[in-house]
Structure to design on (661 residues):
């Protein structure tokens, strides 16, 4: 990839600055253990800012950023933003629906969206499979003691 | 308890019917995830963590170890038959193994891989059996500054060795360290980086970060670049067993591979890639049939496969004796120990002898199970690859939601899943290594505790960090791990620049 992703360097510096600012609110030294609660966050913040700057220098020098290899990835690494959007929507959906609509309905939605991202657009069929799969997961893991909430919390079920 | 007595006691635990069942379940799941893309041993163990609340720790770790070992076997099957290594340690196996399969010798390749894995796994486990107790004893004389130096070495070597760029390795490590700082500081009770959110007071859940980085990041990445070729299965022609000649050509590479894999696996950031690569190179040099390399040489399958499995046993040595994780899977196993309120290290051998020895004995049992599961059933396992990808990845997302929502039903965890998942996507696109994030997240807080203890002992003098011979040595090695590659790189680029000047 020949692009220059300065935003990554900016993000690293930005997160480092937030860590530093937050660390500055805490005592850096302590009487007994010598280093206080703010010491390590300060050190990590400084490290992140410096690394972000080094990254920016590297990007300016034109260091290449090769994409990682993975299975099922096309040889050209051609990006489909539609698929990326659909799968990102699947990951964001639980934020909106999980507390109110519960695990089963949320997961059915996620299932359909991910399947669509992978170019399977048999909506009705996928909804049915997703729903059955989600119910099975919800039931089995509840039996195993994992707390996944009610079936439909909005209705109090 | 000496090793032999310990091991015998371990077998009495591992051979109990319910523990045999857990070992079988672990090896079964391990083989399956080794075959499947998009899901590895670290992720599987992370997803199972919430379930294990209701299982006793011995059973849980027997299952985890089965998953860990099994993934190595499963990876080799797909490497050989389909040229798609499920795990990074199986990459070298694919080189020769897939060629053998194309020449109609797939069965022999699978056979040497499975038996080699068994031999190496068993020898590696023997190494673990007899080396772990003395190293654990050694840990008794470790002072806080020694532990701190050891962790420093782990941080630096993981960041330098993994990935293609040191700067990116360190960015990953520091991201992990910053996430590890979130929560209430245990020494002073002050909140750090919680941004006033109550859900963050307990710190960032390891499971959430791991699942988001691996499963969510991978799903986003693969979905956006999806291009599936239908698996092209090579037929299992030529009988299942190896010929006499094959045995003769395999046994030495098995042993040599084990010799590379076990010690390198035990080193911080050693992993499975380096020993498998070394083993392949050495076998290529030593073989009497150099013309076959690149066209399906059995030595090129036997050696790397053995190295791969021996390194898995090696990883368990520092994990069990010092509580030092050297890979992503080891990091999540350490998190599992902490979930049970257990701290790996010398005291684990004394206080939880049943668990440790049961676990070690189960590794022998698991290896045997894997041999039986894999040899005759290789053709069946490969069928897993025909699962339609839309449903496979959708299923992985649902399992991830079980793992993340099941931890504490927290909306903040879901938000973190989305944020860290996007980060995992960007890390794949711009080639940032993922393991240093996890090592930073889990070892960071532990390193801080040791740092404070050391400073308290040294009454605030920073020289305390090099005050014992071991800590001084480890700090020196850590220093060289960073500086030597940097100096070599600088000299190489200077030479190239000079030669360009001369030729220009």
């Amino acid at each position: 990839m020949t692009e220059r992703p300065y935003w990554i360097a900016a993000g690293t510096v930005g997160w480092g600055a937030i860590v530093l600012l937050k660390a500055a609110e805490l005592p850096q030294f302590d009487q007994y253990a010598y280093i206080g609660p703010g010491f390590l966050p300060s050190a990590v913040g400084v490290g992140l800012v410096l690394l972000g700057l080094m990254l920016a220098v590297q990007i300016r020098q034109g260091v290449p950023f090769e994409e990682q290899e993975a299975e099922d990835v096309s040889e050209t690494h051609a990006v489909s933003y539609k698929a990326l959007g659909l799968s990102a929507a699947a990951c964001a959906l639980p934020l909106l629906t999980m507390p109110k609509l519960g695990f089963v309905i949320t997961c059915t939605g996620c299932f359909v969206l991910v399947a669509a991202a992978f170019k399977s657009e048999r909506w009705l069929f996928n909804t049915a499979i997703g729903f059955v799969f989600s119910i099975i997961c919800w039931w089995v893991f509840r039996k195993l003691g994992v707390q996944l909430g009610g079936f439909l919390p909005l209705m109090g079920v | 308890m000496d090793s032999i007595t310990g091991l015998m006691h371990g077998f009495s635990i591992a051979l109990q019917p319910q523990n045999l069942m857990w070992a079988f379940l672990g090896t079964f799941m391990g083989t399956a995830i080794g075959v499947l893309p998009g899901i590895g041993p670290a992720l599987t163990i992370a997803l199972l963590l919430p379930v294990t609340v209701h299982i006793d720790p011995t059973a849980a770790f027997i299952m985890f170890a089965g998953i860990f070992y099994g993934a190595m076997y499963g990876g080799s099957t797909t490497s050989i038959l389909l040229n798609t290594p499920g795990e990074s340690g199986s990459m070298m196996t694919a080189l020769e193994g897939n060629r053998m399969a194309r020449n109609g010798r797939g069965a022999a390749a699978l056979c040497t891989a499975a038996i080699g894995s068994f031999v190496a796994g068993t020898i590696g486990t023997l190494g673990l059996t007899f080396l772990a107790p003395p190293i654990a004893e050694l840990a008794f004389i470790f002072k806080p500054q020694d532990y701190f130096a050891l962790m420093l070495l782990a941080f630096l070597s993981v960041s330098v060795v993994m990935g293609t760029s040191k700067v990116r390795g360190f960015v990953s490590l520091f991201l992990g360290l910053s996430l590890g700082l979130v929560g209430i500081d245990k020494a002073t009770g002050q909140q750090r980086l919680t941004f006033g959110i109550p859900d963050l007071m307990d710190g960032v859940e390891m499971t959430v970060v791991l699942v988001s980085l691996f499963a969510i990041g991978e799903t986003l990445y693969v979905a956006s670049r999806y291009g599936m070729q239908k698996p092209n299965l090579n037929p299992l022609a030529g009988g299942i067993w190896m010929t006499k000649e094959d045995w003769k050509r395999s046994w030495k590479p098995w042993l040599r591979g084990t010799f590379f894999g076990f010690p390198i696996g035990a080193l911080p950031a050693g992993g499975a890639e380096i020993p498998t690569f070394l083993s392949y190179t050495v076998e290529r040099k030593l073989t009497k049939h150099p013309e076959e390399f690149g066209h399906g040489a059995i030595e090129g399958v036997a050696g790397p496969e053995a190295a791969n499995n021996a390194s898995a046993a090696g990883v368990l040595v520092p994990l069990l004796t010092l509580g030092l994780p050297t890979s992503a899977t080891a990091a999540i196993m350490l998190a599992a120990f902490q979930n049970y309120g257990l701290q790996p290290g010398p005291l684990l051998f004394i206080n939880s002898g049943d668990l440790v020895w049961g676990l070690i004995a189960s590794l022998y049992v698991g290896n045997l199970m894997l041999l039986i599961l894999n040899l005759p059933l290789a053709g069946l396992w490969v069928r897993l690859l025909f699962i339609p990808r839309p449903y496979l990845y959708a299923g992985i997302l649902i399992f991830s939601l079980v793992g993340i929502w099941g931890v504490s039903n927290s909306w903040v965890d879901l938000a973190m899943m989305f944020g860290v998942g996007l980060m995992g996507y960007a890390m794949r696109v711009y080639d940032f290594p993922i393991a240093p994030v996890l090592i930073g997240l889990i070892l960071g807080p532990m390193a801080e505790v040791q740092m404070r203890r050391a400073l308290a002992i040294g009454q605030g003098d920073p020289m305390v960090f090099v005050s014992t011979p071991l800590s001084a040595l480890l700090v020196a090695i850590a220093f060289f791990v960073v500086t030597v590659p940097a100096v070599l790189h600088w000299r190489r680029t200077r030479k190239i620049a000079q030669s360009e000047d001369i030729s220009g």
